[in-house]
Task: inverse folding
């Protein structure tokens, strides 16, 4: 029973365009969401997060949108750069639980 | 930023042996460390939460007698896979959290690839 779902295993985007990575969740108790970026042979690194009391959070080229009614969040990267090529994990947590629940990840490939 | 290291980065062992994986926070003290496991093409699954000086809290379905966790100091947590079997082959990754709040950032180690023959 996967509580956090990333239905696109991979995504290819042209350099300079917008990359949109999607994530769906089923547990309505989740109240904090995070995106991590992972390069091969390295651990995930934190990218951006959003609390359930917000519907948008922006940090430079990265924006995360949260639609609570649809239990859906998305990460927008604009403009996409070659260094953005990596696996992106969506993660969620809720008060009372310490650990993160991860999606399977989406491999983003930025093409020149 | 905060750095978390893991040792070894990869290990191959025979079935029935035990393997210890170390997780260290190099430039900060971590009150809480987490251990995750990732099978191929699967998500990272939380195995246990480790608080310094106390017993680890294991997720449902994770055998605490098989996966021994020790968090003896604020900078070191160890995971010992006892009597390893081929189905334990996986990518084990730890993370460390600086604060006590659930939204405090977790910093991840690079992971350890375990292969049990």
Result:
């Amino acid at each position: 029973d996967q509580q956090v779902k990333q239905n696109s295993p991979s995504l290819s985007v042209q350099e300079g365009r917008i990359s949109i990575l999607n994530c769906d969740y089923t547990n309505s108790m989740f109240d904090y969401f995070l995106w991590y970026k992972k390069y091969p042979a390295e651990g995930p690194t934190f990218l951006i997060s959003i609390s359930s009391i917000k519907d948008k959070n922006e940090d430079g080229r990265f924006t995360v949108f949260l639609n609570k009614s649809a239990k859906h969040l998305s990460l927008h990267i604009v403009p996409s750069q070659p260094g953005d090529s990596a696996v992106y994990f969506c993660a969620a947590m809720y008060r009372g639980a310490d650990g993160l629940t991860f999606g399977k990840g989406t491999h983003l490939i930025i093409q020149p | 930023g905060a750095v978390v290291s893991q040792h070894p980065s990869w290990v191959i062992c025979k079935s029935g042996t035990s393997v210890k994986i170390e997780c260290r926070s190099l430039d900060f003290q971590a009150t809480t460390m987490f251990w995750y496991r990732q099978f191929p093409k699967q998500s990272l699954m939380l195995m246990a939460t480790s608080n310094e000086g106390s017993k680890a809290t294991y997720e449902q379905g994770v055998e605490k007698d098989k996966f021994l966790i020790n968090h003896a100091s604020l900078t070191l947590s160890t995971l010992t896979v006892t009597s390893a079997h081929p189905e334990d082959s996986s990518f084990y990754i730890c993370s460390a959290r600086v604060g006590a709040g659930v939204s405090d950032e977790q910093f991840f180690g690079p992971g350890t690839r375990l292969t049990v023959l």
